[in-house]
Amino acid sequence: MSKASSPIKVRSGQIEFYKLNADQRDFRDLYHWMLRLSWPQFAGFILANYLTVNLLFSIFYYLGKPCIAGAETFADAFFFSVETLATVGYGHLYPDTFYGHVVATVEIMVGMFGMAVITGLIFVRFSRPTARLVFSRNLVVGPFDGQPALMMRVANLRQHAMAEAEFRVMFIRNELVKEGEHMRRFYQLQLQFDRLITFPVAVTIRHVIDEKSPLYGLTAKDLEESDGRILASIVCIDTVIPAPVQSQRDYTWRDIHFGMRFVEIYTDIDDHTMSVDYGRLHEIEPVAQK
Is the peptide bond before 7 cis (omega within 30 degrees of 0)? Predict the structure, then answer.
């Protein structure tokens, strides 16, 4: 496989990587590329290909005239191509020569295969589960149960509860190794809890910063000097489809605020009812000094 002549861009969170001298894209990557398009981009891509195919076949019809009975202008050839590609056939225009029959046959085959591919792509795009999970914009470091803790908030935006939610948080920073070089170190942070049987609304995820924590004793200045980053991930099951969904978010040292906490968003209404204010999901406040 040949090497790509230009860098291949790959984005992960807030970091963009440029792959140099990497293998060139395979033809099968086109399928994944089309699935990654937004719906407006996908519709534009399909429309552009539809018009291109019809223009191409209408040129063949027009150059081979009078291969289509009743077709005199290029517009006639174009609309005959549209009707043939869709296998409509109104009857007013029809192939009148062997050349016309051959071109029409090829176009019908292209239309059948094209329709099958487009139908499959649309089905996959509609059936593919998406995660409507949101992470707090910032992380806070504040006291919890007498110990400092790194905290983030995660919320479920669906109108139903998710199931079997699993949370993971990783700390990444530059460290000086014995050989005198800096390298990136990855630490899996131990969470106060990392699983929920049901995930209906919002929850605060906490990592207690004790002697065993890689964050122990670190200050905001230390995180800046080591380019500290936090990568958070959640995997859960959408009970309506049902299918697993995943979402993630990365944070830089600029997003970690010391001496802060998240504002309370839960309010008791009665013994069986609580309100959750999603409008204050990202709000933080200073920890009260005692």
Answer: no
